[in-house]
Structures are given as C-alpha cells and as structure tokens.
Amino acid sequence: MEVTDSDWVRGNKEAKITLVEFGDYQCPACADYEPFVEKLSQEFADDLKIVHKQYPLSTIHKNALLAAKVAEAVGKQGKYWEIHKLLYEKQDEWANDGNPRGKLVQYALDLGLDKQKLESDMDSDETRDEINKDIALGDSLRVNSTPSFFINGEKIAPRSYEEFKKIVEDYKRGYTVE
C-alpha cells in the first residue's frame, strides 16, 4: 500500500513500518482506538509511520462524510492531526446532531483557521475526490468496518494497546503477523 504526498502521515515519514488506519469520525470504535494509535505514535516515533485514510460509513453514520470533509479541509491549512483528535474527542457533541456543520466548522475555527478557505475546501471537488480515493482503496482491500488497520499492507485486528504494541515490536524485529 503506497503512501502518497496527499496522505495524512504522522510519525517518521521515512520509517520502515507503516500503519494505515481506515477510519470514520462518527464511529465509536474509531474514537476508542484513537488513544491507542496516538500512544503508538509517541512510543514508536522513530520506527512507525501512521497514515489515516477516510472511510466514512455513510449508510450508518449520517454525519461521517461531513466530518471527513472538515478534516480534509482543515488539513489543507496545516492542522489535520489537531482536528482529527478533536473530532474523536467531541464525537458525542456532533455525531447525532441533525445538522452538525456549524459545530464542526467551529471546531476548525477554534484552531485559528481561515473560515472562507475552510468552507470552500470542504465543498471542493478536490476534497470529495480525495475522500473517494480513500474509500475506493478501502473497498479494494475489502475494508468492511472501521477502524480497519494494515501494517505494511497486511490487515491486522488488535483488540488492545498491548496487541498493537506487540505487532509493531514484531515488525521491528523483522517478523510479520501470522
């Protein structure tokens, strides 16, 4: 799975171990896993490249696509990981809102962003295309739930931070997931 310049990457961009997450900002399980991924990014800062891909499950999460658009638009102003964290932390505030756009835009503005650029980017064809590209990749990899994780292209399903950590440590030692 190739990492491109348009991907959202944290950690060491030159790392030999790449963890890719297909996530949905309205997904409660994704919010539960975010602290694990954050901790991995800190504990394995030199060894791990972490990539987030948009995979909004719009049929069951009505606000997920809008949240993905907000994240992409905020990323264009250099604050992707800040909004990424906020969307999960504040999920209970916006996830079931009938019209969450105002709240989501306000989260972005609280990060000191340009409102006009934000709203223009949220509604742009480029943003839509980036999200659709992530969804198509997920579909090609048979992603059917979120979060879905891949390490160096291999699907993994850790159920705890300890399992995540063991998988990364195994890859550091040159082993792969069995």
TrEMBL record:
Keyword Iron among UniProt keywords: no
Pfam families for the chain: Thioredoxin_4 (PF13462)
PROSITE patterns associated with the record: THIOREDOXIN_2
One function term, GO molecular function aspect: oxidoreductase activity
Source organism, top-level taxon: Bacteria
SUPFAM superfamilies from the UniProt entry: Thioredoxin-like
Start and end residues of each Thioredoxin domain: 1-173
Keywords, alphabetical: Disulfide bond, Oxidoreductase, Redox-active center, Signal
Similarity-based family: Belongs to the thioredoxin family. DsbA subfamily.
Name of protein: Thioredoxin domain-containing protein
Lineage, opening ranks: Bacteria, Candidatus Woeseibacteriota
